[in-house]
Amino acid sequence: MKWSWKLARIAGIDVNIHATFLLLVLWFAWIYWANFGTVFAAIQGAVYIITLFGCVVLHEFGHALTARRFGVVTKHITLLPIGGVAAMEKMPEKPFEEMLVAVAGPAVNLVIALLLWVWIHLTNTQVSAESLMGIDGSFAFRLMVVNIFLALFNLIPAFPMDGGRILRAALATRMTHAAATAKAATIGQGFAILFGILGVLYNPFLLLIAIFLWFGATAENQMEQNRDVLEHMTAEQAMLTEFRIVSPDDVLSHAVEHTIAGSQKDFPVGSRHLLTHVLTQNQLVQALHDHDRSTRIHELDLPILTTVDASTPIKNLLDNMQSQHCNMVAVEKNGELAGIVNLENIMELIRFSQAMQARRR
């Protein structure tokens, strides 16, 4: 993710922080300073929000480490002002495994809340309603309450919340994964409508939550229905068999001519017998910005082109391409180059397949 910096690497997972998160820290520091007028208060505000997001990181590690038990890799966790995002390659498809991964995050928050409750009682910390409502209340008490809130909020049965995934996993024990996703998404959109009504009547902030839940449910359902269309399809069905190849010795202007003359945007680099790298349109534009048009393609730092077998399931291929931010793969059949597949091909295959399915209905 752009504007993100690596903060640490824990249990083999990078923890990144987005630049906008620093604005949130400054905002909290300013709120505390505005209320108390001291530098110490500003520091206290910054420490509070950083500690709170430390709990968010632990929440995401709950998901990531549980997913690891089921063979799912998490590439990194990124801290944003709206929360943490664990970049998993995919969610487990077995209902029980998905449920455990989804439950793990809120469970971490509840464990943190329990430990803080024990701490409060062991230290005889005085708590009151003011401790929750005012920023000068007990640090531990407010942190405990917020962790309980995070757990309960994440358990709302609506995508993209953990509760939506728990609901889908429960439904998937009695129906297909795609049908379970559609039903869970509909329920989630119902919650979005409810939050929207409450937002109009009571608190406009709930309107933002309503929008978040509505689009989250829509996106999750669309993605799952796309994957369902590809259930029994292979790379051979999506591959391009007629395409241009650029040679490592070609100059940039040659690649530009190919782009303008046809509809192909990304080019495999190599020969018909051996494709080694891929030159995307964005990389070509950047190269023209940084180098002379007579620069040869082999002088550029290009990503290696992955090769897959023609029998590779499209679902698996799509997951890998999206998780690795890969635009193109080469396809081999019987040990020989048969074609290439890019994300645009896969999306076209999905559109045509959905149109034919709708016609049959």
Automatic annotation (TrEMBL):
The family database entries (InterPro entries) matched by this protein are listed as:
CBS_dom, CBS_dom_sf, Peptidase_M50, UCP006404_Pept_M50_CBS
Q: Where does Zn(2+) bind?
A: H59, H63, D162
Q: How does it sit in the membrane?
A: Multi-pass membrane protein
- Domain named CBS is located at 306-350
Q: Where in the cell is it found?
A: Cell membrane
Tell me where in this chain the Peptidase M50 domain is found.
48-122, 139-195
Read off the Pfam families from this record.
CBS, Peptidase_M50
Cofactor binding mode and count: Binds 1 zinc ion per subunit.
Cofactor(s) recorded for this entry are:
Zn(2+)
What keywords appear on the UniProt entry?
Answer: CBS domain, Cell membrane, Hydrolase, Membrane, Metal-binding, Metalloprotease, Protease, Repeat, Transmembrane, Transmembrane helix, Zinc
Biological processes annotated in GO? proteolysis
TM helices/strands, residue ranges: 12-33, 39-59, 99-120, 140-159, 191-217
- Predominantly, its location class is membrane
**Listed CDD domains:** S2P-M50_SpoIVFB_CBS (cd06164)
Q: Which GO terms describe its molecular function?
A: metal ion binding; metallopeptidase activity
What is the active site of this protein? E60
Q: Which family does it belong to?
A: Belongs to the peptidase M50B family.
What protein name does the entry list?
Zinc metalloprotease
Naturally occurring in which organism (per UniProt): BD1-7 clade bacterium
